[in-house]
Amino acid sequence: MGAIDLLASYFGFEEHDTDFTTELVAGITTFLAMSYIIVVNPTVLLPAIMGFNEQGDINQQTTIDGAVYDSNEVFQMLAIATIIASVVAVLVMALYANRPFGLAPGMGLNAFFTFTVVIGMGIPWQTALAAVFVEGIIFIAITAVGARKYVINLFPEPVKFSVGAGIGVFLLFIGLQEMQVVTGDPATLVTLGNVAQNPAAILGLAGLFLTFILWAREMKGAIIAGIVTTAVVGWGLLLTGVASASALAPETLLDERTGEVTFEAVTSPHYDITPLAGAFVEGLRDVDPLTFVLVVFTFFFVDFFDTAGTLIGVAQFGDFLDEDGELPEAEKPLMADAVGTTVGAMVGTSTVTTFVESSTGVEEGGRTGFTALVVGALFALSLVAVPIIAAIPAYASFIALVAVGVIMLQGVLDIDWEDPAWSVSAGLTITIMPLTYSIATGLAAGIIAYPLVKTAMGERRDVRLGQWAIAVALIGYFYVSTSGMLG
């Protein structure tokens, strides 16, 4: 029996109606869609460790355990920590859960870590890592006893069946912003960007429609082809002098002072991450119990619902849910992010979660843990190939999010729009996600609305006690989080 046959037997290719090539392409697609996190996560976390000077700029040097490190070294440490945490979590997803989902330190959660907890509340970054570590341990414990699966199964049906479409709109919104097609506006919050004056936006849109054309012709690997073609064309225009570096070069490789492309921040990785690894232990000392519990609770709450929403949405998109709208053996993929979060805190990064970009691989046909295994292998290889990953510009890599976002809108067909409880819960879930830039908040809006509307319809007996409990808990959380109690 050959290696491919062994893989097919272990992951159950035949059972899941897939094959080696399909899973391989799906894994590569998911990785390309989420590989930006290798560069973006260190960028978001860097201010937490370096701090700011009086001019509001990030300090260029900091002292950790008596040794002085510059911002470039800390950036590299954070990139390595991001990769390690991602690899560990994805391996659990692949080998234990056998699901095609990718994991990495979550966007939004890393910003909360830096700007709310460390900078806003003045909590040392070591203590923030300790809070993430405790959160991870709690997740492992409640996942092991099935509590997380139980709570997720309490989510109302209209919420479960609308999460996929909600994530689709959210992906669309994120992707179009990163491609600079949608931009900020002081009067209307968002508006159409100056596309005709923006080479990156023009190239991104061209690549997007190329992707749609290839997908419509049922070409396998259409999303990868769109991303790679767009990136190659962009670099070709850049290197031939047709476009300037400021117009088409990835921001992560652009020196703002000289306007030239530089790989200084991502070449020659600083593999010694001991200044970050184990820093959470120091963070457990001399903490204010009340503040620490509040931070842990917030990390826990947001991550719980963010992960739950992503899992349900991508699972619905991949037809993994059963007739009751539940994900069989949900505790296994949930364990992957719990372990990833714990290990991530130990090596020096923020909360690990399942990525919505996993839907790109699922769209390419990924159905088993081998897709995730490919993602993990590519993350590991990226330890020596960070410059190549950083060289994929946002206007190319985010094509995947827009394309899949459009495709995921088909999830609205599963919603009973004539039932008020379904239409209100589903409508809020779908729209609140992009409007608040949060999967967790959109999910919560639908969960809160469901028992209220059901009761108003005279169908209070159809609402389970656990659904009321979750709704009340969410209302309490949003009161705390929006009242200024978090600083």
UniProtKB/TrEMBL annotation:
Q: Which GO terms describe its cellular component?
A: plasma membrane
Q: Does the keyword Iron-sulfur apply?
A: no
Cellular compartments annotated: Cell membrane
GO MF annotations in UniProt: purine nucleobase transmembrane transporter activity
Q: Which residues cross the membrane?
A: 74-96, 103-123, 129-147, 159-176, 196-216, 223-249, 290-314, 334-356, 368-388, 395-413, 425-453, 465-486
**A Pfam family reported for this protein in Swiss-Prot or TrEMBL:** Xan_ur_permease
Sorted alphabetically, which InterPro entries does this protein's record hold?
Answer: Azg-like, Azg-like_bact_archaea, NCS2
Record keyword Zinc present: no
Membrane topology term reads: Multi-pass membrane protein
Query: What family does this chain come from, according to its entry?
Result: Belongs to the nucleobase:cation symporter-2 (NCS2) (TC 2.A.40) family. Azg-like subfamily.
Name of this chain's protein: Xanthine/uracil/vitamin C permease
